[in-house]
Amino acid sequence: TQHPFKKSYGLVQKVQFHPKKPWLFVATQRYIRVYNLIQQELINKLLPGVKWISSMDVHPQGDNVLIGSYDKRLCWFDMDLSAKPYKTLRYHTSAVRNATFHRTLPLFASCSDDGTLNIFHGMVYDTLDQNPLIVPLKSFKAHEVVDSLGALSCEFHPTMPWVFSCGSSGGEYVLKLFS
Q1: pLDDT 10s digits, 99-149
Q2: Largest CB tally within 10 Å, which of 37, 44, 48, 82?
Q3: Residue 109 and residue 138 in contact, taking contact as beta carbons nearer than 8 Å
Q4: d(CA 53, CA 34)
Q5: Does pTM surpass 0.90?
Q6: What is the CA radius of gyration of the chain?
Q7: CA angle centred on 143, ends 139 and 148, rounded to 5°
Q8: Could you give the CA distance from residue 167 to residue 102 in angstroms, rounded to a whole number?
Q9: Could you give the CA distance from residue 91 to residue 157 in angstroms, rounded to a whole number?
Q10: Strand order in the sheet with 87-89
């Protein structure tokens, strides 16, 4: 048993392991802290500049982090560049509920309380001299807004370019597939 945290730094929103290194990403309300579990120390603190983080996902290669926020922003971090967002995307008109990377393809998605599901191309290069390429691809009106809630979550299929979303539609909560 290890205790890498000396004290609490706010409300924890999401915790995720690095895909290749013994690192732990902890998203609190305003910041993302990256801990090395072997050395039991803080190695990085990402500063998104948002009021409340709603979701976080780590790219399969591990050097990029995607966060969604309740103040309508989607932030892409390149940890090799800076502790501040490489790109802040504002494609939603309500709170971003979830943001996720595809595990094998250069895609990422976000869904929001405005009922939309946005799909982006996000190419990460192996060389450090090229920044990530981010291109918006498609915006779906995926779900109806009921009681200020729209699309609640989205997730990619592990191998295919399919994305699932869940939210309200026709007065019921449904799961939808977009291919």
Answers
A1: 999 999 999 999 999 999 999 999 999 887 889 999 999 999 999 998 889
A2: 48
A3: no
A4: 15
A5: yes
A6: 16
A7: 110
A8: 20
A9: 23
A10: 53-58, 64-69, 74-78, 87-89
